[in-house]
Each structure stands twice: as structure tokens, then as C-alpha cells.
Fold this protein.
Amino acid sequence: MYVAIGSENPVKVTAVERVCAEAETTALGVDSGVPEQPRGRAETVRGATNRAEAALSATDADYGVGIEGGVAERDTPAGLWLIMWAAVTDGTTTHFGAGPSIRLPDPVAERLRDGEELGPVLDDELGREELGRQEGAIGVYTAGRVSRTDALTDAVAGAFGPFLR
């Protein structure tokens, strides 16, 4: 099996490689076609889909995988939530999987509502650099109990599952 990954982010690549341990993989920097900070489920899923399709079309892989993290407002329970979605396509069919979702703290949420992006906000709030290429927001807000790689692995496994069963 040959899998093309629509990102060169090491966390996303590792998540795919965990799910597809026996596969040959290629990581490609592709355009998500959505803003740097996707907002809402539809935009986040569209980014994952675009990445999967672009990765597949740029290679002769059997599958293309796209992963996108975003934020979404919810009424119940109220707040701005971190979301993550994966898409896997074979060029004919696309399946999706979601990772865990957590409510973002109000100070972070307010900055995002004002138009900032999550990665730079967290780097600023926590005095860090490139948190999104490390444990990510999920790692920070679960005190390391769930890493970004763990969360994205769950999303990828959910999306790949229908192809692998």
C-alpha cells in the first residue's frame, strides 16, 4: 500500500504512519484551500478533503490523506472548541474521521474570535514556538495526557477504517 500525506508537518506524518505502519508513505506540502485558521466544521473538513485529494493527485499512491485542525463555535456546550478532521480518499470514495474536541479557554477564544490564529496565539500565551508541530493545543490542555499525534492518529484511523476492514 502506498499512501500520500497532504502535509509535511511531522505530527501529521507520524499520525498517518501509525495507522498505516506497513505502508510506504510520501509527505507533500499541499494547499488546503481554506484559511490558515479554519473556522467551523465545514471549512475544516473541506481543508482535510482538499489536502487528501491534492496529495493523491500529485502521486501514484493508492490513498491520499488530509488532516486539518480548526476551531468551531458551539452553543451546547457553549464556547469555542478545538476540532480536528481527517479525510482519506482512493480517488473514488472519501471517508472521514474526527479527533477529540476540547473547549478553548476564554482568553484564547477571544483572540481567535478577533481574527488571530490558534498556533501563534498559543505560542504567545505559553511562551513557546511552533507548538502545532509538537504536542499542540490538545497536549497543552490535557496536560500531556493526549498528544496532538495521538489525537490526529484517532482521526486518521477513523477515516481509514472503512478502507481497511
About this structure: The radius of gyration is 15 Å. Residues 34 and 46 are 7 Å apart (CA to CA).
